[in-house]
Design brief:
CATH class of the largest domain: Alpha Beta
CATH architecture of the largest domain: 4-Layer Sandwich
Number of helices: 15
Shape: elongated
Strand content: 15-25%
Distance between the termini: 96 Å
Length: 717
Amino acid sequence: MKKVLWFTVGGLHQKILILVQVFLIVLMGVFLGVSSIHTRRLSSIVDETRSEQQAAIDNISGETMHFVIENTMTKMIVLQAQNADDAFEDVTNNVRMLRDIAEGMFANRSGMAPAEVFPPDPAKDGVVSSYFLCEQGVDYTRSEYLGIAANMCDTMMAMCSCNDRIGNCYIGLADGTHIAVGTSTKEKYDESGALKPFPVRERPWYREAAEKGDLYFTGLEKDAFGDSTWITCSAPVIVDGRLYGVVGIDIVVDDLCSYASDDENDSGFVCIVNEEGKVIVAPGNNGLFTVSESENAEDLRKSDNKQLAAFVENALSGETGLDVVTVDGREYYMTGSPIKSIGWAVVSVVDKQITEEPAKKLRSEYDRINADATATYRSGSDNSAHTVYVMLGLVFVIASVAALIVADRIVDPVESMTKEIIAGATTGKLFEMRPEYKTGDEIQVLAESFDDLSRKTKQYIIDLTRITKEKERIGTELELAKRIQADMLPDTYPAFPERSEFDIYASMTPAKEVGGDFYDYFLIDDDHLCLVIADVSGKGVPAALFMMMTMILIKTIAESERSPGAILEKLNRMLCANNREEMFVTVWLGVLDIPSGELTAANAGHEYPVIRKAGGKYELIKDKHGFVIGGMDQVRYKEYTLQLEKGSTLFVYTDGVPEATDGQGQMFGTDRMLESLNEADTDDPKQLLEKERAAVDRFVGDAEQFDDLTMLAVTLK
């Protein structure tokens, strides 16, 4: 549309001008009446259309969001329940082991020498140690059980030291005495220095396990000597129908809290409910559930909120699917999955109001676009009416007739649009632009706005569904790959509890969800220990697959070959045969003759090994490198020998250690690595690796880890 002098040319104005020039007389009154009726009708149609389309947007967005949330929450809660089940299964296995050991000891107590046990040593506070306690009025020197049970101290010490989930291990005896392994000793004495009595047979873990006659989990219970809270797994020790005591393990509550806090965000959280319907683990600021000690905690199955009580009951018996539960007038999406090993449940909660925000934003955007289109239309209509009023003063009769014709031409496309939009609200079909809407005026602007909004709405729903499904699939597959890779590496310590000639420990921290580094150790026979550490080129899933294939081949070859050089040569031939992706791996492989301490090794492009002789310093062994595995066929690898004496330690690693980089781009380097190894001053391989990792972390600071970090250490005793 254009302005020519004081006339508007184009659009409705031009049509009215042409009609007025053709017809000379119009009835002004008829035009005004008809125009008013059509204007009100048009406004009503636009308002009805907007309401219908808003309802369609709300319905489609709500259904889509509910589908996405249902699929995400139900799948994730099953995975979290499985993780929690693994954690509790680990603890229950340890409790059963303690019970079996104790029952075996008491069944053969006549032939077992009593072991010595001491009261708590305040000087060992904060260090894992064993000690005895007893009830008020019980003379421990007369106990027939205490010395027998003391033979379990070493086993309980090993459990506490090797499992971060375990806070304390103990056995409460039927004569009122008690043996425990833990890190808290000072609080066992009163202000005068006297040993506090411990009512062992009155503690819930002892009393309930004895009554049940089987494995028992407590709720959240306060420590008898301090402010700490624990969840305890216990089991009775019964021999020939006689109760000799109860073994127990305190589970670290902070470890369980990680299952809740890891998923905590602005809109939802995860909590754990025990078989009594009591919340034992939940984020502190969740605003819905309060975590209390067992005797004060509320049984949600008996809650006044019947909807919540029924949901908790269902979650304890099986997977619930997605439910909407109203608590204190607010709606929440909830889904639950049982922890099968102990009869508890993991519950995920999301505030429903937060999930409705995308639909509200979409409706707000629709209202804005609709308002703009309506304003444009009304502005054009107002201008047209003003021009017509001026013309009507000159041509009363013709303008009235022309106005009726023009009004019909305006209303027909809008009525057609209204019918299509109303039908779309029922069938779900979105609005589409048609040739009859291309009028070249404000009607076309309104139709184009509806068409554009419909296409954007459809594409938004398609994109939202596709992206959410793809993200969920990738996350699930990467988590599964990470668990499979971790299961491939040996991680049970002590690795060879029956062998006292050496001690070994290893660790691997991938830079991504899965990594290309790996380590392995295994006995070829009773006198020979094979040690392997390797680094696959690249990172992520391809490197992890190549790593698992290499690891399996090494073990297979080592069954028939003892020579490190021969093992590497066969491995190289096998990997080169079908290596279309041209991946390679650096490998250091050694075979330790355990009785003599002689180490035979070969190096395929890997980092130099590090050795510390007894009483000496850690030093690099600059061995001769062979070519990398998988890089070139028919490569031969030279062997060399090292003599390890009693007290000597071998440390091997991947390039993720010396090449760890801080925020300024500086590398950790071999010099810092040797310096931190010497500062560690320990013969324990586990402590050595932990201190070395701590030194790397301090150097790197907040910088991102860009490479896998793998270490292995073995000490010859």
